[in-house]
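Morning run. Coffee first, then this:
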Amino acid sequence: MLLLDDQFLADCGLESLPTPDKESLLQAIYEELELRVGNALAEGMTAAQLDTFAAITAPDEAAIRDWLSENVPDYLNDELFHTFEDRAPAGVSELDILGEYAAVAWLRVNAPNYPQITQAELKNLKAEVTSRRDELLG
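And here it is:
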């Protein structure tokens, strides 16, 4: 499981950063990780695959429902879908839950190596942050 938190920063030698700096650094690391993972995944994808994923994450309800009906028609019986429903905060729309589920299902189908890519990019980022520890503590 991916966890960017105080322990991640401590592992990088940044436990002494003030809380506001920790929060902004963690946000920046998360955004950079998301960008790097997205770029790595995109290298092996067709334009049609990328367009579909973009529509799912938009979220475009028609695209989500079309993709699910073609690829996971029995999603209402998928334990993962029910996990998304159960963990959704109050007030989250059905479309948001469906979109989150569809994005994960899409990754399972089109990028089964997603967890490995994420972990590799996180490892690289952690090494980079650690190497810049003195600068960040500056």
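Residues 19-42 form the longest helix (24 residues). Good start to the day.
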